[in-house]
Amino acid sequence: MDSQSSCVVVTGFGPFRQHLVNSSWEAVKELSKLGLGSDMEVELQILQLPVDYREVKQRVTRIWEDLQPQLVVHVGMDPAAKAIFLEQCGKNWGYGDADIRGFHPECGVCLPDGPEVIASGVSMRAVSRRAVVEGVEVAFSRDAGRVTHAAGWP
């Protein structure tokens, strides 16, 4: 990648529980088909992450080290959601659900030595106000879900 281009990484998640097809990954694949910044020099990389706490931690670290992106967006799913939620931050506690390998983080903490919260430098409130998705509400949130959101932890 030359110095004029920018790498943007968008991740979706693989199957988990009864969700044999994870809609987050399906959405990310559609984004790839639509293209991103075709009139600019933006290199879009899409990656599927497993719903596996330990594996996500390793892969996200490699994304930042190997690809050195300008931006990473992790797309998750909530089958009960009636809107697209743009999360301002990821939290390092409250992870009680098992991942696809049956692993539970000790005391519900994703990264034992990590900070309590990592907040995006991008104003998700501003983005949510400008985002338009036909027939779907786009909303701002400061409370991300808690299934393998180790993705939010570099």
Please provide a written account of the structure.
With 154 residues, the protein is an alpha/beta fold. Helices cover 22% and strands 23% of the residues. The chain has three helices and seven strands; from the N terminus they run βαβαββββαβ. It has a three-stranded parallel beta sheet, with helices on both faces. Strands 4-7 form a two-stranded parallel sheet. The longest helix has 15 residues, at 53-67. The chain is globular, with a radius of gyration of 16 Å. The chain starts with 5 loop residues before the first strand and ends in a 13-residue tail after the last strand.
Low-confidence stretches: 148-154
- Largest sheet, if any? 3 strands, parallel
Helix/sheet category: alpha/beta
Number-wise, the strands total 7
User: C-alpha Rg, in Å?
Assistant: 16 Å
Give the amount of beta strand, in percent.
15-25%
Residue share in helix: 10-25%
Shape: globular
Overall pLDDT score: 83
Number of alpha- plus pi-helical segments: 3
Order of helices and strands: EHEHEEEEHE
Spatially, the strands of the biggest sheet line up as 2-1-3
C-alpha end-to-end distance: 22 Å
